[in-house]
């Protein structure tokens, strides 16, 4: 009995020892697992922090590079923009100089050119207005010289030479001033004037007037007729020259013009026009002899004056084909 009890105690002791060993082993194993987990966590944390630091540094480097590239791009853009602006300024300056040079030859006809274009538009004409036509007539026995025509209005029906007179004050063309203002007979003595003639009375100062007599070859009508004959003879070398009608355009907006409307000599009629009646005068010239010229002959005349360096402005169907580099509103700048 005692031996059995002793064996039981030994067995129980062994079981307790085994259980205690298992408990101790499990505790140590749990501690080792906890330590390993902590080590793994620390390693993961360290790796995460390292990755975060690397990513932050990469982002900082990328931001720095981006800002540097943006700054360089902006500097390059600014340089290109400044260079382009300089090129544009130089081009605009060159263009302005070219326009000024072109307009300088038109100086006295810039305003009347605009009035003629506007009048053709109001009249509904298909026309080309040629301005400042310069050519060298070949006249027997005369020294070489240049003739200058203010304007030429060309339609399919007519070639109309327009002599521009920007005369201010009172103008009497073909009309004796004393017949309109009898008191002027005491100072003008105009009874002996014979057509063609023109008289201008203008103010030169607050207390003085100027009187201009333009008679015979110096009269506007005779000047226009002579220029028309010279142009027709000049064109004869390259084409069958068309008849050239003539018009005196008194273009000053503040002039008071008194005329008989036209002057006729040897079947050649010169009409007088003011800004107010210019559209009607152009319409009458265009419709007076329909079909007399024709589109082909009109084109030949236009090309002939283009070759002489004339400024061309198209109206109606000619508007797109003939555009002047000097805009209609352009005026020579004041000094």
Automatic annotation (TrEMBL):
Residues 124-174 form the NERD domain. The chain crosses the membrane at residues 6-27. InterPro entries: NERD (IPR011528). It comes from the Bacteria. Keywords: Membrane, Transmembrane, Transmembrane helix. This is Nuclease-related domain-containing protein. It comes from Microbacterium istanbulense. The lineage of its organism: Bacteria, Bacillati, Actinomycetota, Actinomycetes, Micrococcales.
